[in-house]
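Why does residue order matter? Because the sequence determines the fold. Keep that principle in mind as you read this record.
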Amino acid sequence: MILVPKKSLGQNFLLDKKIIKNIVDLGEISNESIIIEIGPGTGNLTQEILKRKPNKFFAIEKDKNLSIKLKNKFQSNLDIINEDVLSIDWNRFSNVPIIVFGNLPYNISSKILINWIRLSNLDRLFKRFVLMFQKEVADRIISKVDTSKYGRLSILTDWKLKVKKIMDIDPDNFYPKPKVKSSLVYFEPKNNYFEFKDPKNLEKVTNIFFQNRRKMIKKPLNILFRNSKKIIDKLDLDEKSRPQNISPMIYFQLSKLYEEEKH
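Structure:
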């Protein structure tokens, strides 16, 4: 069976064996954990994971042809889940902490990450994530306040995850070669994080602020709150600030105040 990578599924297969080994080393595989690989493709990373003899190993592969090929190649050493990663119910896995590896499809990588962040039991389900993103997306994920890439994705990630960029990877290390650089990013769930009734309120608040990231914050505050002056005083905000000048903690507090005002 000749497999042609599918552009619609964002398929770019990692080839470099040294990088693959580095990725698996970062995961610190142990027998107490469930291993999940997202988008295993032709199984290059899968093969390296299997060398570490994981106790339970699942691979999520949406492409039916690749699923069949992986099943034939690895036999009973691997459980293939032929589903869309965006539709997975993560609670189907037991209470054993999950280690996730993934060369994520770049067209849906942010969606996948946000789906995890929305989980109320993220810190109980997952131990760590070792994930590949398009470099531009990775830079947005890790960016800090007062920088040009800082925005919704940085704030949502900071809410529930500790994050570190490990390295940038050139297109030459993939087949087919993507047009952009990639980045390897390491995440661990935070045990303590700011509590909301509904995390979608944080998404709404950050969305309204960053729709006009160059405008002063007075406008989004007026959209969200009946009395924006009261909020400015309460959080000691400078109304001439721009959205990128506001720290994640202030966004968390704003979202909490927005929740309280709605009810």
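The mean pLDDT is 91.
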